[in-house]
Amino acid sequence: MIEQLKTLEELQHIDLKIDEVKRNQSEYPKRIAEYRQQIETEKLALQTVEAALSELQKHKRSKEVDLQRMEERIENDRAKLMQVKTNKEYHAMQKEIENLRAEHDEMETGILKMMERNEEQEHEVRRARESFRVAEQKCQAEIDKFDQELKRIDEALEDMVDKYDEIAARIEPALIDRYLQVRKLRRGVAVVPVIKWTCQGCHMRIPPQVYNLVIRNEDLITCPNCHRILYYSEG
């Protein structure tokens, strides 16, 4: 029985490694998705400030066209001013030109303010582009690392499964069945040593009669408390 227990412990060692590998196998895609989401978030932030800059530039160009038309209108009115024949018409035309000039100056001031906002927005775009570049570079490096790790895991898992089958073939089927039942109930740990009268699975003290049976390593003995399979170790 002692040889069977030692072999069963080997099997558990492989099983626990497989459990860890499978946890990583399921966890890594989540991490990859998180990094891809970070890239998308930075990309969206960049697109937002770029769109804002584009809208500012479009509005500024529209106002510059309006300003140009206003200047042409003022020049036309000035030309007409020289052709009027009465003082009344002259003063009316001059008043209209003054109003247009005031409107022109106000429009020009607005365009200057737009230019300032445009410069600020261009700065925001440059900052967002740099932030996106850094985030994309950093996140992609992590994604590549996890992709490589997943490939390595697939290969390692195949080797572990082969090793598991080789070890399991040396254990009695009934013992394998018992091991699998306990393993399912005890978070993967079904075989534990008894050290100084204590089960190393639940850390409860083993009764003397059970302890004596464990020391002999002649039969399959389980912990009265956690029901894990026990074997003796001097610790």
**Class of secondary structure makeup:** mainly alpha
**Number of separate structural domains:** 2
Counted beta strands = 4
Helix content: over 70%
End-to-end distance: 20 Å
Largest sheet, order of strands side by side?
2-1-4-3
Structural notes for this entry:
With 235 residues, the protein is mainly α. The protein folds into two domains: 145 residues, Helix Hairpins; 58 residues, no CATH class. It contains four helices and four strands. It has a four-stranded mixed β-sheet with strand order 2-1-4-3. A hairpin with a 2-residue loop joins strand 1 and strand 2. Helix 1 packs antiparallel against helix 2. The longest helix is centred in the middle third of the chain and has 82 residues. The protein is rod-shaped. The chain starts with a helix and ends with a strand. The mean pLDDT is 92.
Features:
Helix Hairpins; four-stranded mixed β-sheet; 4 strands; 235 residues; 2 domains; 4 helices; mainly alpha
